[in-house]
Write a structure and sequence with these properties.
This protein is of the alpha/beta class. Helices cover about 20% and strands about 30% of the residues. It has helices at about 85-105, 120-135, 225; strands spanning about 5, 65-70, 75-80, 140-155, 160-175, 195-205, 210-220. Strands 1-7-6-5-4-3-2 form a seven-stranded mixed beta sheet. β6 (about 195-205) and β7 (about 210-220) form a beta hairpin. α1 (about 85-105) runs parallel beside α2 (about 120-135). The longest helix is centred in the middle third of the chain and has 22 residues, at about 85-105. The relative contact order is 0.21.
């Protein structure tokens, strides 16, 4: 799932994604290094349905890897990073929950709309449009999408930025009626377009929940997308 404007058009190193939350602590000049903050996967996480990594002493997360079932043969592999505190874990979870739930919406042809609870404002409109495109074309998906090198590079008050590398080369678009792969697969299912950097601006609401407000991405041949290649 690739949403909103390309990072190539609004370079992250010179801009802030925190919106109303401000940019005071953004630290955007730091270079992006996918994998630099994520230790190798070691074991499956314990916890609730969202599959969040279990916290170690002091509330810091441990590096884990989990495959989450999005329904009807569609899965999302998530490499949870180590070293996130409880609040940062909630920020990351808002992003990953929305990503997984969007695939659930796709495979159910929009009947499962839980993904709308993880997004708001522009991100909500973009996510709805993306799902609706599958529904209108009578398409679904199968296979495995991967999220890795997840990090929280900036936090300011009730706003934060979550970055993640995405690999959708393992996803195949299918006919929603027959379940068979469509003859012409979209470019985003094939390298290099299948691998990109997704950036989400998240905000904590009055109810205490973090939600995605804005999505941006960097596609190949943008340098940040290249850094997501393995």
């Amino acid at each position: 799932m690739r949403l909103r404007a390309a990072v190539a058009a609004v370079t992250l190193s010179g801009s802030c994604l925190l919106g109303a939350a401000g940019c005071a602590e953004a630290g955007a000049a730091r270079p992006f290094t996918p994998g630099g903050d994520a230790a190798p996967a070691s074991s499956a996480p314990s916890g609730g349905p969202a599959g969040q990594a279990s916290a170690s002493a002091g509330g810091l997360s441990v590096a884990t890897e989990q495959t989450v079932d999005a329904g009807q043969g569609m899965n999302v592999s998530i490499e949870w990073p180590a070293g996130l505190d409880i609040e940062q874990q909630a920020m990351v979870k808002a992003f990953t929950d929305g990503y997984v739930a969007s695939w659930r919406a796709v495979v159910t042809q929009g009947e499962d709309d839980a993904y709308l609870g993880s997004v708001q404002d522009q991100a909500g409109r973009d996510a709805y449009t993306w799902v609706r495109g599958f529904v209108d074309r009578r398409e679904a998906a199968t296979g495995t999408a991967k999220l890795y090198a997840i990090r929280v590079p900036s936090v300011s008050g009730r706003g934060a930025e979550v970055d993640a590398c995405v690999d959708q080369s393992g996803v195949r678009v299918t006919d929603a009626g027959t379940g068979r792969p469509v003859a012409r697969q979209p470019a985003w299912t094939r390298p290099p377009a299948a691998v990109y950097l997704q950036v989400a601006a998240v905000r904590k609401g009055d109810d205490g929940a973090w939600r995605v407000k804005t999505y941006m991405h960097a596609s190949y041949p943008h340098q940040r997308a290249k850094e997501c290649r393995r």
